[in-house]
C-alpha cells in the first residue's frame, strides 16, 4: 500500500467521545472472545509474526509464507482452499448456530489479511530481520498474523456463531492485484452465498500503538497510470531549430499537467498527479527522437477517476501537437478508490471503541492518497477498511519511519488486540445480520 505515513498520529482531538457500546446478542446466546482469550494466544502470534517477517516474500508466489500459515492453523475444524497459480489461502469457519437472515440465507462475513512483502533491503536492526533483499516494510506480516489470531479466537467460540466467516489470506497486494485475482477465483462466495460484509485493517509503523482510525466514504485513493511517449525529430544539440525536441516538450508537460489540475478539478474532490519517470536522450550533444514520461494519477471518487481518464490523455495530445510533435498516450486504471460503506465504517469504529476505549478510536478527517487493492472487495460488498497503529512504544515520534521505509519498525505488541478486534468485527456483524 502506498503512503501509509499519511495516517494521523495525533488522535486526541479527533477521537470519538460519545459512542454507544456495540451490543452482543443475548437472544442468540453468542459468545465472543475476551481480552483474556487474546492474551492466551499472544506469545504464539509474536512467534508467527517474526517467522513471517524473517521469510518475507514478494508477489503472488509466497510458498514459505503459505506454509507458515497452514502450519499455524493445522488441526482446526475449518475448510481450507489453496489458490491455483498463486499462494492464496481461503479459510471458511462454519458457525454452530447458523441462522438464516431476512433474505433466506445463512450470512457470512469476510476478513482479509495480505501476506506479501516488498523488494526492500531491510535496515531495521531487528534480530529477526530478513536478509534476502525482501522485507515486510508495509507490515503485512502483522496483517497475516492478526488474521490467524482472529481465526483461532473465533474457532474457540464457533459453536455459538450464527453464520460463517471467510478468511482471505491474500498474496500480491503490492502491485499484483492479488485481491482481484482472488475475487475472480470466488473468494466472496467461498461460504456458499456471497458474503454480506467485509473488513480489513492496515498497520502503520508511524502511528501510535493501539490507535485505530477509519472514516465514512472515500478512504483511500484510486490509482491510475498514464504512460506518455513524446515523438519529435532528433538532431545535433547545437542546432535545435533543425529538429523537434521531445525533452523540452516533455518538460513543458510536467508543469502544464499540474497547472491543469489546479484549475479544472475541485480541491475538495481532488486529483493528485506526479510525474514519477522522465527518460529521454543518450548524450548531452544529441536531441533525441523521443522522450518517455510515466505519470501517477490519484483520485478519490469514481466521477473524478472517469474525468481524469477522459481529459488527461486529450490534454497531453493537444499540448504536444501545439509544439509540432506527436504523443502516444496509454492510460491504465490500476485500482479503484477504497470506499467505505457509511454504516460499516461507523460499526468499525464503534466496535473498536467498545473493546479498547473511545480515546483509541479516531474518525479520520481526510482520505489517504495511497491506494489499496481491498478496494476490489469493497466494490462488490459493503464493508470498511481502517488503520491500526503499531509504532514501537518507546520510540520517539521523530524517529518513527513510515511503511515502505527500509527502517520501518512495526511493534508486535498490538497483535493480540488486532486479532481480538477482527474476531469481534466478524462475530458482532454476524449477530446483527442474524437479527435483521
What structural category do the secondary elements indicate?
alpha/beta
Strand arrangement within the widest β-sheet reads 1-2-4-3-5-16-6-15
Average pLDDT confidence is: 93
- What would you call the shape? elongated
Q: What does the main sheet amount to?
A: 8 strands, mixed
Radius of gyration, rounded? Answer: 24 Å
Order of helices and strands: HHEEEHEHEEEEEHEEEHEEHEHEH
- Percentage beta strand: 15-25%
Which consecutive residue ranges, at least 5 long each, have pLDDT under 50? 2-26
The number of helical segments is 9
How many runs of DSSP E, i.e. beta strands? 16
Portion of residues in helices? 25-40%
How far apart the termini lie comes to 35 Å
Which helices and strands occur, and which strands form pairs?
Layout lengths: L34 H20 L8 H10 L6 E4 L6 E5 L14 E7 L25 H17 L7 E7 L7 H7 L12 E8 L7 E3 L2 E4 L1 E10 L3 E2 L9 H19 L6 E10 L5 E2 L2 E10 L2 H21 L3 E10 L2 E3 L1 H15 L4 E3 L11 H6 L2 E7 L25 H21 L1
Parallel strand pairs: 3-4, 3-5, 5-16, 6-15
Antiparallel strand pairs: 1-2, 2-4, 6-16, 7-14, 8-12, 8-13, 9-11, 10-12
Helix pairs in contact: 1-3, 1-9, 3-9, 5-6, 7-9
Question: What is the structure about, briefly put?
Answer:
With 436 residues, the protein is of the alpha/beta class. The chain has helices at 35-54, 63-72, 140-156, 178-184, 246-264, 302-322, 342-356, 375-380, 415-435, and strands at residues 79-82, 89-93, 108-114, 164-170, 197-204, 212-214, 217-220, 222-231, 235-236, 271-280, 286-287, 290-299, 326-335, 338-340, 361-363, 383-389.
Your description of this structure?
The protein is an alpha/beta fold. It is 31% helix and 22% strand. The strands form four sheets. An eight-stranded mixed beta sheet has the order 1-2-4-3-5-16-6-15, with helices on both faces. The relative contact order is 0.22.
Amino acid at each position: 500500500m502506498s503512503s501509509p505515513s499519511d495516517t494521523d498520529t495525533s488522535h486526541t482531538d479527533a477521537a470519538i467521545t460519545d459512542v454507544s457500546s456495540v451490543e452482543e446478542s443475548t437472544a442468540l446466546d453468542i459468545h465472543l472472545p475476551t481480552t483474556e482469550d487474546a492474551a492466551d494466544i499472544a506469545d504464539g502470534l509474536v512467534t508467527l509474526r517474526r517467522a513471517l517477517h524473517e521469510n518475507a516474500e514478494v508477489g503472488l508466489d509466497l510458498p514459505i509464507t503459505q506454509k507458515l500459515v497452514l502450519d499455524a492453523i493445522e488441526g482446526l475444524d475449518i475448510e481450507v482452499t489453496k489458490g491455483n497459480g498463486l499462494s492464496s489461502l481461503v479459510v471458511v469457519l462454519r458457525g454452530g448456530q447458523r441462522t438464516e437472515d431476512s433474505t433466506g440465507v445463512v450470512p457470512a462475513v469476510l476478513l482479509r489479511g495480505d501476506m506479501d512483502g516488498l523488494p526492500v533491503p531491510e535496515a531495521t536492526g531487528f534480530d529477526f530481520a530478513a536478509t534476502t533483499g525482501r522485507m515486510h516494510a508495509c507490515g503485512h506480516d502483522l496483517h497475516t498474523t492478526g488474521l490467524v489470531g482472529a481465526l483461532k479466537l473465533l474457532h474457540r467460540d464457533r459453536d455459538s456463531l450464527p453464520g460463517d466467516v471467510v478468511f482471505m489470506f491474500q498474496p500480491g497486494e503490492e502491485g499484483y492485484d492479488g485481491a482481484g485475482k482472488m475475487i475472480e477465483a470466488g473468494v466472496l462466495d467461498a461460504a456458499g452465498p456471497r458474503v454480506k460484509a467485509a473488513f480489513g485493517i492496515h498497520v502503520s509503523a508511524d502511528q501510535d500503538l493501539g490507535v485505530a482510525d477509519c472514516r465514512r466514504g472515500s478512504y483511500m485513493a484510486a490509482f491510475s497510470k498514464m504512460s506518455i511517449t513524446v515523438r519529435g525529430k532528433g538532431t545535433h544539440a547545437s542546432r535545435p531549430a533543425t529538429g523537434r525536441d521531445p525533452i523540452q516538450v516533455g518538460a513543458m508537460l510536467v508543469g502544464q499537467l499540474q497547472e491543469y489540475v489546479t484549475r479544472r478539478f475541485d480541491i475538495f474532490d481532488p486529483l493528485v498527479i506526479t510525474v514519477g519517470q522522465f527518460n529521454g536522450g543518450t548524450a548531452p550533444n544529441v536531441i533525441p527522437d523521443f522522450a518517455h514520461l510515466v505519470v501517477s494519477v490519484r483520485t478519490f471518487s469514481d466521477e473524478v477517476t472517469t474525468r481524469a481518464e477522459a481529459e488527461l490523455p486529450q490534454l497531453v495530445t493537444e499540448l504536444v501537437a501545439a509544439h509540432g510533435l506527436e504523443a502516444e498516450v496509454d492510460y491504465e486504471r490500476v485500482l479503484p478508490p477504497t470506499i467505505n460503506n457509511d454504516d460499516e465504517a461507523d460499526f468499525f469504529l464503534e466496535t473498536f471503541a467498545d473493546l479498547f476505549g473511545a480515546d483509541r478510536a479516531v474518525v479520520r478527517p481526510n482520505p489517504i492518497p495511497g491506494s489499496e487493492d481491498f478496494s476490489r472487495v469493497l466494490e462488490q460488498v459493503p464493508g470498511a477498511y481502517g488503520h491500526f497503529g503499531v509504532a514501537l512504544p518507546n520510540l520517539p515520534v521523530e524517529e518513527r519511519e513510515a511503511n515502505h521505509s527500509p527502517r520501518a519498525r512495526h511493534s508486535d505488541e498490538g497483535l493480540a488486540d488486532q486479532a481480538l478486534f477482527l474476531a469481534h468485527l466478524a462475530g458482532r456483524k454476524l449477530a446483527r445480520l442474524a437479527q435483521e
